[in-house]
Amino acid sequence: MRPDYRVAFALAGATLLAASTSNEETLTVPLSGQAELNFAHPFGSTGDLDGSGLVKLAIAPAQRKVCYDFSLSDVGTPMMVHIRQAKALQNGPPIVSLFTGPGGELDGCAPANTRQLEDMIAHPDDYYVSIATTEYPDGALRGQLAS
After folding, report:
1. Structural domain spans, the chain
2. Which residues of the chain form beta strands (DSSP E)?
3. Are 97 and 106 in contact (CB under 8 A)?
4. Could you tell me which residue, 96 or 8, shows the higher pLDDT?
5. Boundaries of each CHRD domain copy (predicted)?
6. Nearest CA among 20, 26, 54, 17 for reference residue 124
7. What is the per-residue pLDDT across 102-126, written as a single tens digit (0 to 9) for each?
8. CA 19-64-62 angle, 5° bins
9. Of 31, 29, 30, nearest to 139 (Cα)?
């Protein structure tokens, strides 16, 4: 009797697929007003200088989501929070909206594209978290996923 290599090949392929999509990454990102590039601000390119914070991100490509938990100090009411794509000292487009609208939850999960999440894990220095508040609607705090 010949061994059935089709079953072994199918199992190996399923294992490889599971391994390549199950990578989850947890990041802790410091947030500051000094890091925010806010060219619309009349006094320079900074956000809320007395504000600060920290966000813990759990990036899960296989589940197509990113979960977040913010701790903020000395900032106005958060209006919008995005993960954007750009290196430090550059502004970029929003990739994932964590929440929009005043009074959004500071902890939760947001849906996201698997490939974009995988790229965030592979290249965290190419992404940043940006928080807009009622006091600084063009950007209060920012933090690169990695420096």
Report:
1. 23-144
2. 25-32, 52-60, 65-73, 78-85, 94-100, 107-111, 127-133, 141-144
3. no
4. 96
5. 25-147
6. 26
7. 878 899 999 999 999 999 999 999 9
8. 10
9. 31
Q: Which two tokens stand for residue 105?
A: 């939850």
Q: What is the pTM assigned to this prediction?
A: 0.80
Structure-token pair, residue 128: 């940043």
**Segment 41-94, tens digit of pLDDT:** 555 567 899 999 999 999 999 999 999 999 999 999 999 999 999 998 888 999
CB-CB neighbours of 68 under 10 Å: 22
Name the region of 54 (left: φ>0; alpha: ψ -120 to 50; beta: rest).
beta
Distance CA(130)–CA(114), nearest Å, equals: 21
Q: Burial, 65: exposed, middle or buried (Cβ in 10 Å; 0-12, 13-18, 19+)? A: middle
Residue type, 66: V
Tokens 């978290």 sit at which residue?
129
